[in-house]
Write a structure and sequence with these properties.
Elements (H helix, E strand, L loop, with lengths): L1 E4 L2 E7 L14 E6 L7 E4 L5 H10 L2 H4 L3 E3 L10 H7 L3 E5 L2 H4 L7 H7 L11 E4 L12 H7 L8
Parallel strand pairs: 4-5, 5-6, 6-7
Antiparallel strand pairs: 1-2, 2-3, 3-4
Length: 159
């Protein structure tokens, strides 16, 4: 299915199927193509795909549809698809929907392993990495408005 809105196409490449035994595998995968004159940049949104659903996606999607300019890292860039999926997408820019504490994780959630696939050294990032929600501070009590107010000025996206 392809949905077109104002010169932007969203092609649905995968939805949940009966083989998805982990909830993350039920993520929808879509490729966005922006028609901008001669330029047609593409973004692959992997959602929360896990290792198993990532293999299904890779093996069942035509190779020519995998290549994208930008990729949204599956499941925050941790505990997700294997390197071969990212190799097939071959994106130059990676969108990491990740918290700062998770980005700094050392071996618990496997973020360090995924970063190593792209030559990213400990707690650093390259020009091809965009960290969304990589805030330097979070409220101690998520239900407290006053705690949120104390850290709002430190909640900036790190590029």
């Amino acid at each position: 299915l392809t949905i077109s809105i104002d010169g932007v196409d969203f092609e649905i490449l995968r939805t949940r199927d009966e083989r998805d035994v982990i909830v993350h595998g039920s993520s929808m995968v879509m490729k966005m193509t922006v028609k901008d004159g001669e330029e047609t940049p593409t973004v692959m949104f992997l959602g929360d795909l896990d290792k198993i659903s990532g293999e299904f996606f890779l093996n069942e999607t035509p190779k020519e549809k995998l290549k994208s300019d930008i990729v949204q890292m599956a499941h925050h860039g941790n505990w997700a698809v294997d390197k071969n999926v990212y190799d097939a997408v071959n994106a130059k820019i990676r969108l990491w929907p990740i918290t700062f504490w998770l980005w700094q994780d050392h071996k618990i959630w496997l973020v360090d392993k995924v970063r190593s696939w792209f030559g990213i050294e400990e707690n650093n990032y390259t020009d091809g990495d965009i960290l969304a929600c990589g805030y330097g501070e979070y409220p101690k009590d998520y239900t407290s408005i006053s705690d949120w107010k104390k850290c709002v000025d430190k909640m900036k996206i790190i590029l």
